[in-house]
Amino acid sequence: MSASVLYDAPGPRARVRNRIYGAVSVLAIVGLVAFVIQRLDTTGQFQAGLWEAYEYTDTQHRILDGLLTTLKTFGIAALLSLALGALLATARLSDHRPVRWTATVVVEFFRAMPLLIMIFLLYAAVFTNDPMWALVIGLTLYNGSVQAEIFRSGINAVAKGQSEAAHALGLRKTQVMVHVLVPQAVRSMLPSIISQLVVTLKDTALGFIILYEELLFVGKAFAAQTQPVNGVYAFIPMVIVFGSIYILLCLALSGVATWIERRTKRSRKGAPPAPPVAVDLGTGGSGVVNP
Amino acid sequence: MNVLSDHFAEFREGFLGTVELTASSALLALVLGILIAGFRVSPVPALRAFGTAWVTLLRNTPLVLLFLAVTLGLPALGLKGWDSFWLAVLALGCYTSAFVCEAVRSGINTVPVGQAEAARSIGMTFTQTLGQIVLPQAARTAIPPIGSLMIALAKNTAIASGFNVAELAALQKQLNADEGYNIYVIFLWIALCYLIITFAISGLFRLLESRLAVTR
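Above: the input entities. Below: the structure tokens describing the complete assembly.
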């Protein structure tokens, strides 16, 4: 902590004080956790009857089905949104003004809309009895626009001399993009792209609201069917189990992002003097800040 | 016939509902976020661990699941009698607080250590250093990302429509179900309402940014 902006390296008195604060906060946190557990216990959330259904293979199959549905939706939406993002980013970087403006309007509009409003529209007007496609297309439009902004800022962050040099060598616009700009930009963009994919994964849970049978819907339906034990419904066990599944999925995906980030950093160190790539990208308007 | 003029009262109610929901959750998110950020940068390991756990759990949970946890979980734990509006504020506020915390923390981290060292060397106390040197600089870095978080929050309030809160998305769902109106027209009006709210927030933050701007 000696290098912190906020605190000087502690002297003997500060160290004693910090130790007291530490003890008090440990007590407070333990007290809080104990209170929550005690509350869960007195309201009967730990009764075996509420949990034993998770041991049945039938239940596990249903959860697995829900998980697969969520992953399938996420997979399709992720691929489509990356494709749409690439398309929109290319259009926004185009030399032709009408193309650029159209893409800008599209990107800004879909980024400004709440995703759920889009999904309600698609579900009511286009995919009336196919909630999956309402969800997938809604996710694609929203996340595609956000990804487009990530791609664009990544391409813009490549040092200008790179494209100038490529043009000077006689490469065409497409060649400059494909052979020079994109390979360099992808490296710096990957962490942002993947954190947006985590957002996409989390947003598949919106399907719950239009009654699409993804993981969360399965959980709620399952908890509602479980026989209440002594008047206690199985909702809290459901939230704990399904919450853990979602958190693990998202952590796994963000783990991939940090792994890639570390790998690209390492390889850059070993490579011959590479041009400085601007490290700091915008967060693409999604408001997600990497830890 | 026009949807807006036929249902003007509902539109006004929905609009105000969304605005109230956004404002209340923003307040909760800012207070909690700054508090947790304080925990995460404190010299006390237990508080840092608590802050990290809070941020990791909330950032990786879908907001819909959080809504479910709050609306079904709290009554089951004996906290009965909460209005669905305040339950929604709780879910939205806690969720956004994790992101606010990260924005504030990275704002603090961008202040060069030399600034604080210089302040200490001219004899400023901890409170003076914090209040006059570190936080004013950190706030300038943290305000733009907090602005985009507040816009994201305004958009996220739409999820409350699935949990019995009267706001714009719920109105859209209800009007879509009433036969007779063009669904796209309904969408455009609802979209316009959201655009007004998000533009107001981004204008507010741009104003704040230009007011606070200094040459560094």
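Note for the figure: Chain B touches chain A through 67 residues (CB under 8 Å).
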